[in-house]
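User: Here's a protein and a ligand (heme C). What would the complex look like?
Assistant: Let me lay out the input and then the predicted complex.
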Amino acid sequence: MQTLPQRILSLMLIIGISLLLLGGNAAIATAAPIIPNANELAQAVQEIESLDAMRTGLASSLEGRTEAPTKQTMKEVCRPVGMRAMQLSKENGWQVQQIANKYRNPDHKPNNLHDQIALAKFNQEPELVGFWDRETLNKQTGTRYYRRIEVESTCLACHGLKNSRPQFIKDGYPQDLAYDFNVGDLRGMYAVFIPDDIQKAMQDAIK
Ligand code: HEC
C-alpha cells in the first residue's frame, strides 16, 4: 500500500512526465543530479535522537514514581513513541519505523531483507550506533538512516522476565516476543526512509 506522501509523489511524477512529453518543461530535464539533502539527513538524525530521548524519559519517570503506576501511566511509555514516529512520517514525507526481531507490536517486525541485514549488523557490531544506506523502497529511491535501540534498566519493568510483564501487556499483546531482555541487549532499531527529491525521480523515469 502507498502512503499519502508516496501517492502525492506518484501523482506529481505523472504530471511532470506528461509536461515533459508535451515539451513544456525542459528545464526540469536538465536539473543537476540529486544527492541526498544534507540538511534533511541531519534533521532526521536529530528527530530520532529526540524520539529516543522521549522513550528513555518516559521510562525513567515511571521508575521514579512513589505510588504504584496506574494502568494508564503504564501505557504511556512506548505507545507515544510509535505515535510520534507516525507524526514525523507525515510531517516530513519520510517513513519512520521501529523494527525489532523480538517485537511486541507485530507492526514492528522486520519487513524485508534491508531490515534484516541492518538488525544483523547492529547485532554483530555492538559499538555501532547508526548508519546510512542507499535503498529502493516501494520502487522509490532514497536514503535510509538506521539507529540502534538498546535496553536500559528502566525498560525491564515491561521488557524483562516474561512472567513479570504488566497485565495490560499480557492481555493486549498476545503475540508479544519483547521480553526476557537484559540491560545492554539490542532491543531493535529506528529506520527512517527519506525519499529522493522529485526532480531526481523524474530524471530517472525518463532515462
Ligand atoms: C510501561 C511498560 C514499558 C516500558 C517501561 C518500556 N516499554 Fe517498550 N513497549 C511497551 C509496549 C506496550 C510496547 C508496544 C507499543 C505499541 O503497541 O506500539 C513497547 C514497544 C517497544 C518498542 C517497539 C518495538 C516492539 O517491540 O513493538 C521498542 C523498540 C521498545 N518498546 C523499547 C523500549 C525501551 C528501549 C525501553 C526502555 C527505555 C522500553 N521499551 C520501556 C511497554 C514498555
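Summary: Residues 12-31 have pLDDT under 50 and may be disordered.
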